[in-house]
Amino acid sequence: MKILVSSCLLGEDTRYDGANSSVALNPKFRFAQKELFMDIMCENEIFSICPEVAGGLGVPRNKAEIQSHKKPFLVLDEKQNDITINFLLGAKKALDICLGNGIKVALLKSKSPSCGNKQVYDGTFLGNLIDEKGLTARLLEENSIKVFNEYEIEELNKFIKDNK
């Protein structure tokens, strides 16, 4: 199966702080979760993207949070720079990869203002989470692409098995 995967989850240093969110090397995950993640990565066709970098933002970059979750969207960085267009461009590039390659599922970084599929930070830069989606996750789901995060590896594996 073809899967779109957040670059940071694959160990690429694309996070805002210049680091990565590697699932395989993260001590928060049990060995069985890491092994399943690696099995999924090895047994499927992986398309890697960091929507924020694809949208023109650098590494490292200022933290960003969504201020408005309804159109017109508003994404500001911690210095109050409007970077909404970068997030929208990155989301569109992720969607284009999916549509152009017949990708029906994505594994994206939880809590990210681009990739979060369940929760994101509330826009205050105080570390508070709300039940909302990042702009890329939202656009993919609006286009019938199933989105999982790194804490949903077992669910992703079931989806893959059920859709082969």
Molecular structure report:
The protein is α/β, with parallel strands linked by helices. It is 32% helix and 19% strand. The protein is built from five helices and eight strands; from the N terminus they run βαβαββαβββαβα. Strands 2-1-5-8 form a four-stranded parallel beta sheet, sandwiched between helices. α1 links the parallel β1 (2-6) and β2 (45-49). α3 (84-101) packs parallel to α4. The chain is globular, with a radius of gyration of 15 Å. It starts with a strand and ends with a helix. The relative contact order is 0.19.
In short:
This protein is of the alpha/beta class and 164 residues long. Helices cover 32% and strands 19% of the residues.
Number of helices: 5
User: Order of helices and strands, N to C?
Assistant: EHEHEEHEEEHEH
End-to-end separation in angstroms reads: 7 Å
Counted beta strands: 8
User: Major sheet: size, sense and barrel closure?
Assistant: 4 strands, parallel
Order of strands in the sheet with the most strands?
A: 2-1-5-8
Proportion of beta-strand residues: 15-25%
Helix content: 25-40%
Q: Compute the average pLDDT.
A: 98
Helix/strand/pairing class, anyone? alpha/beta
**Rounded Rg:** 15 Å
Low-confidence stretches at least 5 residues in length (pLDDT < 50)? none
The general outline is: globular
Per-chain topology:
Elements: E1 2-6, H1 31-43, E2 45-49, H2 51-54, E3 64-68, E4 74-77, H3 84-101, E5 105-108, E6 120-121, E7 129-130, H4 135-142, E8 146-149, H5 153-162
Parallel strand pairs: 1-2, 1-5, 5-8
Antiparallel strand pairs: 3-4, 6-7
Helix pairs in contact: 3-4
